[in-house]
Automatic annotation (TrEMBL):
Coiled coil: none
Protein's name according to its UniProt entry: Sugar lactone lactonase YvrE
Key words, A-Z: Secreted, Signal
Record keyword Transmembrane helix present: no
Domain of life assignment: Bacteria
The species this protein was found in: Pedobacter cryoconitis
Length: 349
């Protein structure tokens, strides 16, 4: 009997080790090694790679294209802040970016200095700005931190997640009018500490409690998904309620749990309905499949140092930006202890 128990225990141990090795054998390839922190990354259908530069990392450049591993100001140097005072004609604090199905690049500018939230759109075939939408102060007042965006190009809507006053901003891209949904418990951080490498992560001098952060849309654009950075629940709500201008109570009553998630700064939803999260505490990319099961796609304690966002390209490569954000002064209250280079990786799914 004792030998039998030892045999089964050994088999169980080997199986676990093989499973862990299989996760870690997924190969991360370097797309760019950068001397400043990338924010989010997005990839066109033709494979062109774009990234924002995180506002906590640089005030010189805000938006770049990665060409042969180098970050080049996009669409040109003239739009960048270049360490100068923010202006209406130039970028301020870029972060979330996404391509729509027409290969138009949309980038959210939080306007942390200017005090105006703006949504920029680019025609990458001409490398030019084609839209700049300014959100009204009643919907996005100064101090708004709208860091993530989802686009419904078919119906002409954008959905932005604001973590300052946790809420969802729904923007009609045709009329340029926007509404805000706030105050619901699903938008708030859960009262749980974020622990990375054995240490509690602080933000603003106290244990981090960051509300709604990642926001995505289903493939048919009919379901909006969202969740708090400091939270283990992934929520969903019909997007048509925002388009139809329903009141906050109606929207709130329609919010349901889509599944579980790790503490995450970014997320994506694929065409099959799977969700991928940047797992901050476990240095991983974690998948929530259509059966409700969570599993790591990859886990790497040395490379995935604060994976900020993940983006699934048309060719099946998963792009991941990493920026060691928890080492910045905003999180620690101490001098920045992050160490360049900061990486953008890709991984074949």
């Amino acid at each position: 009997m004792k030998l039998k128990l030892i045999f089964f225990a050994t088999i169980f141990f080997i199986a676990n080790r093989l499973s862990a090795q299989a996760i870690n054998q997924a190969k991360l390839e370097t797309v760019a090694a950068m001397d400043v922190r990338p924010g989010d990354v997005a990839v066109s259908t033709g494979g062109r790679v774009f990234a924002t530069i995180h506002p906590l990392g640089s005030q010189k450049t805000q938006l770049v294209e990665i060409v042969n591993g180098k970050a080049l100001p996009y669409p040109n140097a003239g739009y960048q802040k270049n360490n100068k005072k923010a202006s209406n004609a130039t970028f301020d604090s870029m972060l979330g970016l996404i391509f729509d199905k027409h290969d138009k690049l949309w980038v959210i500018d939080m306007g942390l200095e200017l005090g105006e939230t703006r949504l920029w759109a680019f025609d990458i075939s001409k490398n030019k700005v084609v839209e700049k939408i300014e959100l009204s102060a009643d919907v996005a007042p100064k101090g708004t931190f709208a860091q993530d965006v989802a686009i419904d190009e078919e119906r002409g809507w954008a959905y932005l997640a604001d973590i300052t006053n946790p809420g969802i901003i729904a923007l009609n891209l045709k009329t340029k009018k926007a509404t805000r949904f706030s105050g619901h418990p699903s938008l708030q951080a859960e009262n749980k500490d974020m622990v990375i490498d054995g240490s509690v992560v602080y933000f603003g001098g106290k244990p981090a409690r960051v509300g709604i952060d990642p926001i995505t849309l289903s493939a048919d654009k009919e379901t909006l998904f969202f969740g708090a950075m400091n939270g283990n629940i992934w929520y969903k709500v019909p997007a048509k309620l925002f388009r139809e201008g329903k009141d906050n109570q109606t929207i709130g009553n329609a919010i349901t749990k889509a599944g579980n998630k790790p503490f995450s700064d970014g997320a994506l939803t694929d065409a099959a309905g799977n969700h991928y999260f940047t797992n901050l505490q476990e240095h991983a990319i974690t998948k929530l499949d259509t059966n409700g099961k969570l599993s790591h796609v990859i886990q790497d304690n040395e490379k995935l140092l604060w994976p900020d966002n993940a983006y699934l390209a048309a060719d099946g490569w998963l792009y991941i930006s990493t920026n060691q954000l928890n080492t910045t002064t905003a999180f620690t209250g101490k001098p920045d202890s992050g160490k360049a280079p900061f990486y953008i990786y890709k991984l074949k799914l």
